[in-house]
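Project channel, design review

CF: Before we commit to the Candidatus Sulfurimonas baltica constructs, I'd like one complete example in the thread so the newer folks can see what an input/output pair looks like. Taking PhnA domain-containing protein.
RD: sounds good, go ahead.
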Amino acid sequence: MSIVKELQSRSGGVCELCGGSDGLTDFEVAPSDGSSETSVCICSTCRAQIENPDSMDENHFNCLNDSMWSEIPAVKVLTFRLLSLLNRQDLMDMMYLEEIERAWAESGIGSKSSVVHKDSNGVVLQAGDTVVIIKDLEVKGAGFTAKRGTAVRNISLVHDDAEHIEGRVNGTKIFILTKFLKKS
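CF: and here is what came back for PhnA domain-containing protein:
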């Protein structure tokens, strides 16, 4: 049986990421040995977005909320990598990966950028940290002011920009300049 047929049989004839059925093909999760164990059945929409990460549609990949619970290691590894690309640390933290699966997943994530995020005191910030806002900040487009002393928990780092982090204030996801934050 060919790998494509084997994967389609395993997936029930749908994409193992989003459940779509258009243009199903196999996708090897590197490093791959070319078997169905290291491959995933994906649709043409998922493939196009994976191959062009700059044009990824985060809304399409809301499906990763479901695929992250797959029993198939290759699906979990690919989901972990996509969540990493989308900066979805909240979902990555909820995923359960065996040690060998986590090593496989992290081996395929490109080297972390050399961008270092520092707060107003020069303390290095990491994804998942809690920070405190040190100045009242008007949030443009949201219609509220983030007050001084507000704690922002479980922050995400903006990979290409050392001056910004991403976090939730009053339930709204916003970008905040690191010069207005201190690590708590």
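RD: helpful, thanks. The mean pLDDT is 89.
CF: The chain has six helices and ten strands.
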